[in-house]
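U., I forgot to send this yesterday:
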Amino acid sequence: MEIRVRLADLALRIGIAALAMLLAVSFGAVKAQGFYFGVDLSSVNAREACGATFRENGVTRDPFALFASRGANLVRVRLWNDPSGWTDFGNLSDVEKTIARAKAQKMKVLLDFHYSDRWADASSQIVPGAWRGITSDAELAKTLYQYTGLVLLTLDRAGLMPDLVQIGNETNSELMMRAPWTAGRSIDWKRNALLFAAAIRAVHDASARTSIKPKIILHIAQPENVEAWLDQATAAGVSGFDIIGISYYAKWSKLDLAAMGAEVRHVRAKYGVDVMIVETAYPATLDYTGFPNPDPDKGETLTAAQTLVPGFPATPQGQNDYMVKLTQIVMSNGGIGVIYWEPARVDVNCWPRARTDGDKGWQNATVFDRYGNIFPSFQYMLRHYDAGTNR
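Result:
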């Protein structure tokens, strides 16, 4: 009775319509509690070093604060072992700066170990240069264990322990090979499982000494590849992980949004672990007039018109609406988060040492216009979602 009286009194004060809106927002926040609304901001430091600025309505803003104000509660950041041969970024010092900026905005952090000196992805998992002389799989696993633990304990001593840790990046192929993956090759699961076990054990052992206990993510590119990979991994004895992370890009996936959601639900039920989309993106424009040619990767190019999802045009509003749809599907199917890959990877012209694979080519998949202003339509993380699932 007391609650009803209070609500009635509040309704008289602010009006029924306003009260309804207040309740919708409040309950929506409760429903979405625990869901990761993430952004990969790995290259922000490099962009700023090259002169990039990030604005809201023409006013310069700290990009971490800006994304936090738009609802982001998680920052993903990649770590290369020793990228000094080609860039000054993506090393541990740079990662520490990114984590500190994220934590200053009260956002959680996902640390993405690439276990390589350069990009690791579904077709390229190249062993770090310093480890190439190691011929014994057991010795390589020992080195991987020591490195992973040392990184985490170093971060913890600086007050920068991540909340989630990703063991490799898009590890569809085999960890730490000496040459790019070739079609038709089979994974040596005895070796692969040994390496995964070493890295997972390192996270567990390090977190036994720290107050923050990171959740462990295994990451596969495209949802249609997840089940077959996990069947092999678990059969080989890979265990001790908490989350399956999936890259989902329309061009490279055989599954539409609905099928992706069904796979999220299926994988979660089959393996008894949480699932999240750790990489996704969508173009805000197909017109790159005044920009360099867009990156042909992931379909975010002028020819992306062939891969756009029906009903979601390549406009800032279409980009946001697509992310609303994707997020709701993931949430409704029991997923625990969605991370937008590099929404601040704006085009810059810079010196070679600041490069992180090229200074240009992703602008039309960012959430900023060519003047550095964040799109007013970029609001999907603040939206009220129906969080009802069969979890």
